[in-house]
From TrEMBL, chains A, B, C, D:
Cofactor: NAD(+)
Keywords: Cobalt, Glycosidase, Hydrolase, Iron, Manganese, Metal-binding, NAD, Nickel
GO function term, MF aspect, one: oxidoreductase activity, acting on the CH-OH group of donors, NAD or NADP as acceptor
UniProt name for this protein: 6-phospho-beta-glucosidase
Bound cofactor: record note: Binds 1 NAD(+) per subunit.
Protein residues bound to Mn(2+): C176, H206
UniProt site positions, description: Increases basicity of active site Tyr: E117
Residues where substrate binds: R101, N155
A Pfam short name: Glyco_hydro_4
Organism: Paenibacillus anaericanus
Amino acid sequence: MVTVGNSKGLKIAVIGGGSSYTPEIVEGFIRKYEQLPVRELWLVDIEQGRHKLEIVGELAKRMVAKSGLPIEVHLTLDRREAIAGADFITTQMRVGLLEARKWDEHIPNQHGVIGQETTGPGGMMKALRTIPVLLDICRDIEELSPNAWLLNFTNPAGMVTEAINRYSKVKSIGLCNAPIGLQKRLSEQYQTPIEHIYTEFVGLNHLHWVTRIEVDGVDRLQEMLDNREDYSAKNVPPSEWDPEFLKGLGGLPSYYLKYFYMTDIMLEEQVESMKANGTRAEVVKRVEDELFELYKDPNLQDKPKQLEQRGGAYYSEAAVNLMDSLYNDKRDIQTLNVSNGNILDFLPANASIEVNCLVTNKGPIPLSVTEVPEQIKGLIHAVKTYERLTIEAAVTGDRGIALQAMVSHPLVPSVSVARTLLDEMLERNKPYLPAFFE
Amino acid sequence: MVTVGNSKGLKIAVIGGGSSYTPEIVEGFIRKYEQLPVRELWLVDIEQGRHKLEIVGELAKRMVAKSGLPIEVHLTLDRREAIAGADFITTQMRVGLLEARKWDEHIPNQHGVIGQETTGPGGMMKALRTIPVLLDICRDIEELSPNAWLLNFTNPAGMVTEAINRYSKVKSIGLCNAPIGLQKRLSEQYQTPIEHIYTEFVGLNHLHWVTRIEVDGVDRLQEMLDNREDYSAKNVPPSEWDPEFLKGLGGLPSYYLKYFYMTDIMLEEQVESMKANGTRAEVVKRVEDELFELYKDPNLQDKPKQLEQRGGAYYSEAAVNLMDSLYNDKRDIQTLNVSNGNILDFLPANASIEVNCLVTNKGPIPLSVTEVPEQIKGLIHAVKTYERLTIEAAVTGDRGIALQAMVSHPLVPSVSVARTLLDEMLERNKPYLPAFFE
Amino acid sequence: MVTVGNSKGLKIAVIGGGSSYTPEIVEGFIRKYEQLPVRELWLVDIEQGRHKLEIVGELAKRMVAKSGLPIEVHLTLDRREAIAGADFITTQMRVGLLEARKWDEHIPNQHGVIGQETTGPGGMMKALRTIPVLLDICRDIEELSPNAWLLNFTNPAGMVTEAINRYSKVKSIGLCNAPIGLQKRLSEQYQTPIEHIYTEFVGLNHLHWVTRIEVDGVDRLQEMLDNREDYSAKNVPPSEWDPEFLKGLGGLPSYYLKYFYMTDIMLEEQVESMKANGTRAEVVKRVEDELFELYKDPNLQDKPKQLEQRGGAYYSEAAVNLMDSLYNDKRDIQTLNVSNGNILDFLPANASIEVNCLVTNKGPIPLSVTEVPEQIKGLIHAVKTYERLTIEAAVTGDRGIALQAMVSHPLVPSVSVARTLLDEMLERNKPYLPAFFE
Amino acid sequence: MVTVGNSKGLKIAVIGGGSSYTPEIVEGFIRKYEQLPVRELWLVDIEQGRHKLEIVGELAKRMVAKSGLPIEVHLTLDRREAIAGADFITTQMRVGLLEARKWDEHIPNQHGVIGQETTGPGGMMKALRTIPVLLDICRDIEELSPNAWLLNFTNPAGMVTEAINRYSKVKSIGLCNAPIGLQKRLSEQYQTPIEHIYTEFVGLNHLHWVTRIEVDGVDRLQEMLDNREDYSAKNVPPSEWDPEFLKGLGGLPSYYLKYFYMTDIMLEEQVESMKANGTRAEVVKRVEDELFELYKDPNLQDKPKQLEQRGGAYYSEAAVNLMDSLYNDKRDIQTLNVSNGNILDFLPANASIEVNCLVTNKGPIPLSVTEVPEQIKGLIHAVKTYERLTIEAAVTGDRGIALQAMVSHPLVPSVSVARTLLDEMLERNKPYLPAFFE
């Protein structure tokens, strides 16, 4: 379609460029080059990530070299240099690294609560660690590339996006691989191109329901609800949905909703899995170590297959598609995390929601949702309450608000458990929470 | 103030007139006679309650005789006769009697869930049993006394009131003794008349927060939050609030909120109390038996002191005050259960809420709430979601909706527990749930 | 894209098939045949229109014959036969014919008020005549083709669509040629395909503002506001916009907004034009007579050029495009008249608005509007108030409500003028307003 | 009731103390002394008002002396001295004096538009002159008496109050004599005390409808609508309402609504009245001159009867009642101008509306409105749109916004008239509009 912008090509900054995911996004840029002419790709990381940045950065350079495309790959520890004049900025950070994630998962489990890095008390800690860092990055963007789009993958993506939209002027969109993942699955299952599929997402990041599924113009929602075993994600332990419950739910639940609807079974599985394999963080750590071993191989010029087992399949595809649509004004429909406006009439206008959007080069325009099933409203509002309090706690460093946030989370069973978790987790995250420990 | 209505005096119908509470309301009518000239008091009950109706009815007659007032007391099993031409109708029913309550409390406890007759799965069963009966009574009122006010005390009062407001044309108001109870307590504690106290209630029936407490023009909310041990209700097991949590909550919580905020402790207490004393239903049953023994005494001409230990203190005072204000257009402020309108902007207009109202003789006019603390919105919406699904299930007899309702309740930990509870409880309540077993 | 529906081809019913516009839509079906395989085209009209139906129907048959396509053209006076089993139904009716329009324009002018067939008192009369007839048609559709889409062009399209959506179960969409007309103009002006243009419409039918205009990704709104003389419609008398006013308005106004913003000048022009040429209705009558003379020519096998001067350019293109997108699930963006939902937060959910929609084969999904300029909210709400009262008057035949509607219209200067207009116009329209004269 | 605050008595500041109304408020303080123990009454004016301040100030002193009460009357030109530590501050200002008012009335009339000092273009000029001065006063209050209540009578009271609430931290309430005036009239007409009357106001200042009128518990709205000649205000020219129109309106209209509903007749009356008596400003000027002649009489120790003909009857009674209820936490119902919150769901939360409030010593709590008739919503929103744009113009001095405001006013017939009026009126008000002429 229409092509606008810098005629010499685009500057992209990837914050957290030393991540094991980087080869995915590099592959994406190479594949989409015709639509999305990247001229400069800046991979930026912090001092502790220098080693990984070098390994993955060298692989990126080899991948580009093989492609023969005129993309310059820059590696840097200087964030401001990477951000200055960028057209698109993505973040794939993990404040506190996998070590912090380990405790996000472990401490709750020890107290009989779901331990998960985006949902539950773990996600709250991740938000408290991450939001101040992201807002700090936004200060740089406001100064150095105020017209850039910030595409945020950093979890918990819903809260991070809302924090950015409320506390900065940066143009930001949150995104997740779940929507594209569902469409890929439907495309395969029904043997039809993705363009022939329509899915309507209602809810929040990692707390959505898919309330319309149309494939080749035929309503397939009920069929999908009946074949419930099919849509478990790889990085979420499997477990059985109650068929009558699903039938009445009015939408295909996000796999993260298992933590809310099957809390007992999921907790049991977590505890057993931890005994067998350690926390999910430790599992991921081993996978990552293996990946970096592979990346070091000077003969490797492609994204290795093994990366796909890492969990975040389609992340880079989602990112590159979004950049393409923003850059080229494609006006296709993508499911994104944006400010609510009037879409869900029971949430504030500035609350982030996950919703279908028409993507124009002025940004995403959310589509109305056809219908919000009565039975999901309470849970959406309960989790959004927790999210808003968490954001406020992250910005202020106020323990009192953090306690209210923790108590408000539907997976936390009581004030006394909330207090125990909060005290223990804040203490454990002390190095990453300056606002709480000044 | 202004006096309107039937110049010959008022006709009152008390549905469930055989209740042990009846002497309270009779005492209220005698005390308020000057403002509220009752001419006919109809106590109506069902066949199974005939014996209790006779005992308590005879006591009522003796009480009136002693007062020397020209009030006629009628006892009847014919509901339509009692309703015809009534000015005010109150309900104090217990569909399924205390036997049903016992199971409302017992079954959840057996599955590790709070067992309580208004909150949690027990309250849901109570709603399923009660709503159809109340709507049936409303059909009679629509026909026989369309201008009557129906004052509904029958629990769960919030859901019952919403069901009536949505599915009948009867003018109905739900009320609870908690608001007047708090004001009595404040009046005593600060040694000032109730007229000098202002309390603002926000939320739902049995799920409210008092967000403003002013005594003699001085803000006492924070002080009350600090003296948290003071405000436990007699019929709710005591247990300690976390002081920091209360401080940040922004409102004095209803004592029923302990079930949500201290689920673990409350459950433990219930289980222990059951071991020691049986269910709360069984305790109440013993108290009631003793009361009826007292009532039988032909020399008794007054409400016996022991009734006050029964639990629902001030119920009749609340009822008589409300009738007085409606009848005399008093325009005082009372906390009532009415339709939301625009008060809470995240709930539907026809949702029942508990809110301060100006009481005029055209009915209550809700007052704006000064502020709704962010931290309570999610829980209010979650419980209202459960309530609306429960009402829909009660009206339709649809098990699928009942399952969604049960799952939506914040005290029910998972779909599998919800299903177990629902199946067991529906089966146990079979005689009272014709819509589910047709 | 995806093709669904009747494999043997589509049945289309055109109500008001004897209209001079019919050759346009026939041409559209021929041109789009590959995407939209019409098998049966039913042109239906009333007894008074029999002669015109025959003339235009024969032309339609010659056009189809020339195309060589297997489309059957049916002419009928039996509406039910035409509707039964139809896939798409369009309406292009004029209850009361051009004679009624003449008075819609003439009477207001005589009292110093804008005389216009869709805006002002004329539009109100048109709505009162048309809504009951359309609702009657809807009763047939509910019975005979409940899955059909009713595409409503009949003016006042906003009110008619809202009436259908509120008082019937028919799936209906209102549409207007203004949006496609603007895009055609922009496409020509900027020499770029329509797909490279994005326009955002905010408001109501014939009362919209275009608040975003992007051409090849470049914001052109301000430029368009500066070249204000360019966008007058052919069937609206020209007249000059105040440049400073436009600059601050925040959106390109619909040409019908001249009646609101330049009432004095427009009225003067109407009065002068009437002196010179008679009412617009009379002008149109002459054009139509000439058209039908042309249509009679048995050698004519194409839509004659002269039809384009008739005024409703692009109507059939809009209709055929919409059918194509509904049938083929094209998911393109079209500007349509649909129920508001939450889009404009100050209007009721069931109010019709004109808004960009994604067109899927389950119907249009409205897009959020980026921003509603403060300065247009009052006028939108004022006109919508008038519209809702008019719809209520049309459905009930209540003169009191009709008076409130007339007074509420911003172009009616006082209650006394409203009363005069209403009395005179109701009387004149007596044959078409049975609900008012029973 | 409860008495709080400064035990030594209250400090009151009257800004615009040299007004001819001052004797009214002094009389009010004397009459209410027992409930409202005023210790210091500060009358403050500007240099140009020094002479009038001295005359009226001396009268005030004589009135207090006669009463024998320990109230100190202070006259000053130092606003900050008057404000410092005040408990209540009232404003009764006229920026530009009656000379400015004359042009507010005269210029619109010259262009065929209603000339009125609060409604129409005149009111807009008054708002542009007044809002910056009031906000300047608010800066002083924020600094010198942050806990004071500012009771604003200064017209246009709705816009001024909204401006204060949006652009300062001062606790402010707008009030008008219309509500108390209606109650006085009803009290007299039905021979019953005001306490037995309930009236519900819906709308904006000088743009309200009274949708409930209950006297001694009996609905009298329809009766009042039938006796329409009764309720014309003295300072508004009389003229006849259309009976059928009123019957269907659903509320008793404010007398200012005649300017909207009978624009033609009212304009004619204004033009004729101006020919006969000059503008209303000139009439008022003569009355004021006469009043000050009276005030000078050293033997005068009371408010002279003639003041009552001045027009603002009950203003001081309204003010003193409001202070009494705020100070003594009376919790009676008063009709006030406050922020909308959720009361009217189609207006922003921070829009000022005129609404019944419970007056507590923490401020007014708005009551829900029972129902908003459909037919008044559009006009309310149209005028509020004009008001919000006017406030924005006043604060920014932006001519473009001022033009949008003028065009948005329902009494201004077209953009060209708006532009003419705006240019002429801004020029005439140049000395009072520094923001526009910097």
